[in-house]
What does this fold into?
Amino acid sequence: MELKDTVREKYAEAARRAGTGNRACCDSVCGPAAPGGCSEDPVTSRLYEAAELAVLPREAVRASLGCGNPTALAQLQPGEIVLDLGSGGGIDVLLAARRVGPRGRVYGLDMTDEMLELARENQRKAGVVNAEFLRGEIEHIPLPAGSVDVVVSNCVINLSADKDRVLAEAFRVLKPGGRFAVSDVVVRGPVPSEIRHSMELWIGCIAGALEEADYAAKLRQAGFEGVSIEPTRVYDVNDARAFLSGHGLDVDAIAPLVDGKFMSAFVRATKPRVPPG
It folds into this structure.
C-alpha cells in the first residue's frame, strides 16, 4: 500500500472514531496500552484555549490531530481568504472562519471522504456559513493561482511524500504578499533510521518531519521570503517514550537519542509582493 493510501485509511478511521464519540488519536499513542481510547498524546494535546473549544462541536474537537494552533498564531484579519491544508474534522477552519468574519472566507482541503463528511456536519452544527470544504490533495490544490491571503495547516505537510510539491502549490495559490503560516513537527539534528522507516510513526506526524534547515531551504526554493521557524513545544525523552511505544522499537535505546530532537513549530513565510527579476 502506498503512503498516501495508508494516510487516507488511518485518517478515515480517526474520523469514524470521532463520529462515534471517541477521541481520534495518532497511531503513535494508540495501541494495546489504550484499549477503547487514547492516552494523552504529547503532540496533539492541550493546543487550544478553553474559550476556543467552547464554541465548537465536540466532534470537531475529538477529531483534532494537529500539533499547534495555527489560526491563532497566523494573526488572521477580518475579510481575509484562508486555505487550510489537510483540514480533517474542521477545527481550524471553523476557528479561522470566526476570525475572518462574514466578509472573509475559509477553505478546508482534505482527501479523506470520512473527514470531509465529518467536517461538513461540524460546520452545520457550528452554524458557520463562510467556509467550504473541498476534496483534493495538498499536492494538487483545486483553487486558482493568487486566490487566497493565508495558507494554514496543522501537522499535515509532514504526511506528504512530496513536500516540495506541497510548498510550490501553497506558493501558487497565495496572492502576492500572502502568508504561509503552518504548525508542523520539525526535527533538529539526526534521527535514528528506525523512526524514519516506520510507516506507522509517519502517520503519527513524527517520522515524516523535516529537519529545520531543510524546511527553511525548501520554502525559499519554492519562492518564499521572510522564512522563520518558531518552536512552540519541544519534546523531551518522556514524550519520546510516549510516541515511540507500541511500534516494535527498542524504546529504551531510542528515546534518549531523540530527546529534544523533535519539536512542534510555527512555520512562517511570505510570498513576495513583486516577482523576482
